[in-house]
Amino acid sequence: MIITISREFSSGGREIGKRLADELGLAYYDGEIITLIAKETGMSEEYIQNISEKGVYPYTYQFAKSFLNSSPVQNSQIQVLVKQNEIIKKIASKGNCVIVGRAANVILKGEDTIDLFIYADMKSKVARCKQKADENENLSEKELEKKIIEVSKNREKFHNVVSNEEWGKKENYDLCINTSGVDIKSIITPLKMYIENWFRRN
Amino acid sequence: MIITISREFSSGGREIGKRLADELGLAYYDGEIITLIAKETGMSEEYIQNISEKGVYPYTYQFAKSFLNSSPVQNSQIQVLVKQNEIIKKIASKGNCVIVGRAANVILKGEDTIDLFIYADMKSKVARCKQKADENENLSEKELEKKIIEVSKNREKFHNVVSNEEWGKKENYDLCINTSGVDIKSIITPLKMYIENWFRRN
After folding, report:
1. Which of A171, A179, A184 has the most B C-beta neighbours within 10 Å, making it the best mutation to test the interface with B?
2. CA B195/CA B202 separation, integer angstroms
3. Which of A99, A115, A179, B64 could form a disulfide with A104, with the two C-beta atoms 3.0–4.6 Å apart?
4. Interchain contact B110–A (C-beta under 8 A)
């Protein structure tokens, strides 16, 4: 049972992933992947996080791969991308996990996964962002909106480096969940059942 | 509890709607709306069906409405559109129903509904179309594909007359369900629970 979760920033996707992993007894991967990349490349987590969140990949994955085959990897951005690909495939080969973000749905295309996309309207995303107040404490609503748009745009950009498929296009996912005004806790049990049935029948 | 279901042709949306209505004890409206329009306008069901499925509305709903207010309705296409609007609002005012198609999610915008969109890849849609073999018995796979594309295009066209919102755009729905390779029966119980929780919390 492999669940991939793609999500708009502050739409509750991480909470859904974490709760599903708990309920279904699955391994959970999110920031953990960054830690693994750091371990295997010797780069700092901050640097890797920065590359992923700022969406600065200048090359496509195909290009990166051909580059990797012909000469030692010089470019650390490419190295992160290739390593991430390897790590996600390794994680998936063990099965029974939830992978949040990192374009895992694309990297694992063809595997027996269920791919969720979590989204919400701006009002709900700003409200969720406010609840996680620690780091955003001093941001105004306008600034939060700006941040939300920026992070989502970078995720999209990152996704488009790895894939030819459009980020957030419903056809690329098995289930798209609008969390606007929705209490995440209330949807976990039905989602869990949906996923269990899905893997039983498919 | 009002559930609206929009769906690509042959994606299993009607079956989902019917089963949910049975399980939740809700009234079910699909072709029934055509019958009601026929009764109230005196037009034949075939004619009304034809207008809806062929997507020939030449006017927007806003235009139709202003037209209706200023003079007797001459144009039967407009009459169908306006009547459909009235009927769907009347149905919704009684609550506890499933409405399939007819852009009900748009007509009921602002009401406390849960809006589902059902879709699937072409392979699954052709397979479902084949199962309902009676009327399609003599169609080849290519012809089925053509039919599926045509009907979906007309639904989209019809939707766009009633609404400024894009048909099938996930942001306009609460839950988008990809039925590719999915056994409809297996998703009814979790969906039912999802919807029950949704109305309990919202």
Report:
1. A171
2. 10
3. A99
4. no
Mutate one of A114, A197, A200, A202 to test the B interface: name it (highest B CB count within 10 A). Answer: A197
* pLDDT at residue B18 tops 90: yes
Chain B: nearest CA to A123, how far in angstroms?
13
How many residues are given for chain A?
Answer: 202
Question: Each residue of B117-137: pLDDT tens digit?
Answer: 999 999 999 999 888 767 656
Q: By mean pLDDT, which of A64-78, A90-104, A109-123 is the weakest?
A: A64-78
Place of tokens 């709900």: A124
User: What residue type is A177 in one-letter code?
Assistant: I
By C-alpha distance, which of B78, B72, B46 is closest to B60?
A: B78
B186–A201: do the CB atoms touch at under 8 Å? yes
Q: What is the DSSP letter of B102?
A: T
Query: Closest approach of chain B CAs to the CA of A152, in angstroms?
Result: 15
In which residue are the tokens 């995720």 written? A155
CA distance B12 to B128: 8
End-to-end CA distance of chain A: 11
pLDDT > 70? residue B99? yes
Tokens representing A84 are: 């991430």
